[in-house]
Amino acid sequence: MTVSLITLGVYTSATGSGLACQAQWPLCSDQLIPTLTINPDFIEWFHRFVAMITGFLILGTAGWAWRRGDRRTTRTAVGAVVLLPLQISIGAITVTINGLVPWGYAVPTHAAHLVAALSIFTLLSLTTIYAYREHHSRPPRARGRRALGVTLVALLVSGLFSRGVPLLQYSPGAQAWYYAVSLIAVIGLLATVYWLTGVDRLGRQLAGLALAIIVGTMLIGRDLVAYTPTVQLLNFGLYVAAVVLVAGGLWRLFGRVQSPSTPFGTEHSE
């Protein structure tokens, strides 16, 4: 749901639908529910509706983690809840434009909204990874290979829609697909960094650097800087660097086979 919400938020912004609803929040054009047809008012309202459902699910996740009694899952799940009011407030400011806040619909506010959304997504991803850490039959290195494989495929697909790779027009639909697939790469790299801790230091560093680069390209794609030909070239270079790092991590993990004498699931780097 959080992936869907961020993707929908990108589409809403790209279509200019954040300017709809007559700069009102939480109402939309003096209504609680606008006309249910595909128009800017509906797109903006639907984004808010999905955000509300996702918010309740995040609260439920935190409640589950609290009852489970695990410290790590509780910290990350509750951290996502703590960020929720901030994200809601920034979203409200973003769509008021010249209504309540004159500077609401501006690049800095959009940037803060995306950063908060990515932070919540990261915390929820870590909650999931921590919750399932005892339910894997494969050793950490094998898990890392699988996660990096998924990441590499996601990166190659995201390149079709990326603004830095001029293959397709960077339309609202392309932007939504780019961020949806990029988020899959993000969670794959988060899992890799976690699973390779204490197992393969270099592989973990490669995944961590690729993660930082991907997040950077996602921020560049939201017009946080003037998108000049130089910035596009930089964006393309960062994309290629991320692909190389992930491919290098895969090559390293496939090239280092677990020793038969190493206890299953407890391998360590040489």
TrEMBL record:
Keyword vocabulary terms for this entry: Cell membrane, Disulfide bond, Heme biosynthesis, Iron, Membrane, Metal-binding, Oxidoreductase, Transmembrane, Transmembrane helix
Keyword Metal-binding: yes
Protein's name according to its UniProt entry: Cytochrome oxidase assembly
A molecular function GO annotation: metal ion binding
GO cellular component terms attached to this protein's record: membrane
Lipid bilayer topology: Multi-pass membrane protein
Alphabetical list of InterPro entries matching this protein: COX15/CtaA_fam (IPR003780), COX15/CtaA_HemeA_synthase (IPR050450)
Cellular compartment(s): Membrane
Transmembrane segments: 46-66, 78-105, 111-132, 144-164, 176-196, 208-227, 233-254
Listed PANTHER family: HEME A SYNTHASE
Keyword Lipid metabolism: no
Pathway the protein takes part in: Porphyrin-containing compound metabolism
Main location: membrane
GO biological-process terms attached to the record: heme A biosynthetic process
